[in-house]
Design a protein that fits this description.
The protein has 514 residues and is an alpha+beta fold. It is 40% helix and 25% strand. The longest helix has 27 residues. The radius of gyration is 26 Å and the shape is globular. It holds the Pfam family tRNA-synt_2b.
Length: 514
């Protein structure tokens, strides 16, 4: 656990040092669980968003985009169920005075059991080598089987208790598991209580007549209330989807783990409208599709897993998370939910307006079912960043810190480095930048020895370093260095664009989904 915490601290420190993420309002001692994206962070975030948008919207002829307002009529949140049911179960420790999400305390306890399973697997792999059969080991090793049964039993009970809103049993579960406060080690807990997560605000100049509003806690409702607008103006035929990226706001009382859980965050959501009765088929298709998207980035198949929900939201008939191995363990990265006809049906009821689709093939009207994919952009940022940050031992007994970002997402694609700051080399380097900057985000660096500049660009995640030297003046060639392998090759300046394009082109990366 201590090692995981140390790794996570390095992630947070590196993110600040290299201009990726800053604490919001830091000069005023910051604002809890609110962060700003720096000059490199904003580029990485933009690239992740574009990678999602191209895969979800541009490459699907039956999915279109939307940008709905953050402010919505307050009845929206009554219809969606957020006013009555958008709560977190919170518990306080009487001795440390710290507040926690009760379900997260239990999930963290389960994560420790899962870590024990992983340790058993690693020991067995070491013992049996190439003969090791992981599937067979997980199914037959009694200690591992017992651990897995314990995990299943705990999560099932937690899910059932939360679904029934039996908060007394949630506390009882925490006590039975002997869970202590992470800060103080105390087991002196209060009762579990529900806390609504929505931020309230007002619309209007006069305090007496101002309308009570909420900052949206999710982006999905903007899609649902615009269902007919998009369907009719786009002449969309079911099945079709509406995608949206944008800010959402939740009054997280127990915000933690850097940008994993924030009060202001960004979502990338797609609502797919389908014929009732086809939801199981589409649920499986979108689970497969979304996992392929994640795996296309090459961050390791072992770092992902599906987690089926024991407790279903009030609107769902099936739900699964794609979980990612963060430095603090496997946690939710994306959700795939079969939402039935709850959303459109509820808005139809509360608004008094028909939100139905006339299906010419069936010759009848119906309220479509919805299949949702929803991913947190900030969590995806953290997944990419934390997975990419590595310490490597080199052959000369030195180490280097390298940020092995997927090249397609890297903020800066290439750094142009003149070997020395004279003899016309900077002029040639600037000429290369003038040519490449139309297609790629590139940078110029002339400070320090070239080896130190390489290390700086490695730590910044730049896939290529292009060095201009005296030979360049003779034959118009440069040395291009690859970040991940550190290999160097001599290439013509005229070939640089093609070399970089091959490595960073979205088409190349997204074709891995096929």
């Amino acid at each position: 656990m201590a090692k995981q915490e140390d790794i996570f601290k390095k992630v947070i420190s590196h993110a600040k040092e290299y201009g990726y993420v800053f604490q919001s309002s830091e000069i005023y001692d910051g604002l809890s669980a609110v962060y700003d994206y720096g000059q490199n962070g904003v580029e990485l975030k933009k690239n992740i968003r574009e990678y999602w948008w191209k895969a979800m919207v541009q490459l699907n002829d039956n999915i279109v985009g939307l940008d709905a307002a953050i402010f919505m009529h307050p009845t929206t949140w009554k219809a969606s169920g957020h006013v009555d049911a958008f709560n977190d179960p919170l518990i306080d420790n009487k001795d440390s005075k710290k507040r926690y999400r009760a379900d997260v305390l239990v999930e963290d306890y389960v994560a420790k059991i899962e870590n024990k399973i992983e340790k058993e697997v690693k020991k067995a792999q070491k013992r049996f080598g190439d003969n090791f059969n992981k599937t067979q080991f997980l199914a037959t090793n009694q200690r591992v089987v017992d651990y897995q049964e314990q995990v299943t039993s705990i999560l099932k009970r937690l899910g059932q208790s939360l679904e029934k809103e039996d908060l007394v049993d949630v506390k009882k579960l925490i006590e039975e598991l002997d869970i202590a406060c992470p800060m103080s080690g105390s087991k002196n807990w209060t009762d579990v209580k529900q806390f609504n997560l929505m931020f309230g605000t007002k619309l209007g100049a006069n305090a007496e007549t101002a309308m009570d509003l909420y900052l949206r806690p999710e982006t999905a409702q903007g899609i649902f209330v615009n269902f007919l607008n998009v369907q009719k103006t786009g002449r969309m035929k079911i099945p079709f989807g509406i995608a949206q990226t944008g800010k959402a706001f939740r009054n997280e009382i127990v915000a933690r783990q850097f940008i994993f859980r924030m009060r202001e965050f960004e979502q990338m959501e797609m609502q797919f409208f389908i014929q009732p009765g086809t939801q199981k088929e589409w649920y499986e298709k979108w689970k497969e599709n979304r996992m392929k998207w994640h795996l296309s980035l090459g961050m390791g198949e072992d770092n992902y897993r599906f987690h089926d929900h024991e407790k279903l939201a009030h609107y769902a008939d099936a739900a699964a998370d794609i979980e990612f191995r963060f430095p603090f363990g496997f946690k939710e990265l994306e959700g795939i939910h079969s939402r039935t006809d709850f959303d459109l049906g509820s808005h139809e009821e509360f608004s008094g307006k028909k939100l139905q689709y006339f299906d010419p093939e069936l010759n009848k009207n119906y309220v479509p079912y919805v299949l949702e994919t929803s991913i947190g952009l900030d969590r995806m940022f953290l997944a990419v960043f934390s997975n990419s940050l590595q310490e490597e031992e080199l052959e000369n007994n030195t180490t280097r810190t390298v940020l092995k970002l997927p090249a397609v997402l890297a903020p800066t694609k290439a750094a142009i480095l003149p070997l020395v700051k004279k003899d016309g080399l900077p002029d040639i380097a600037h000429g290369i930048i003038e040519d490449l900057k139309w297609d790629f985000n590139v940078t110029y660096d002339e400070k320090d020895a070239v080896g130190r500049r390489y290390r700086r660009q490695d730590a910044n995640g730049t896939p290529f370093c292009i060095t201009v030297d005296h030979q360049t003046k003779e034959d118009n060639t440069v040395t291009i260095r690859h970040r991940d392998s550190m290999e160097q090759e001599r290439v013509a300046i005229a070939d640089l664009k093609a070399i970089i394009s091959k490595a960073v082109d979205m088409r190349t990366w997204l074709l891995k989904m096929k």
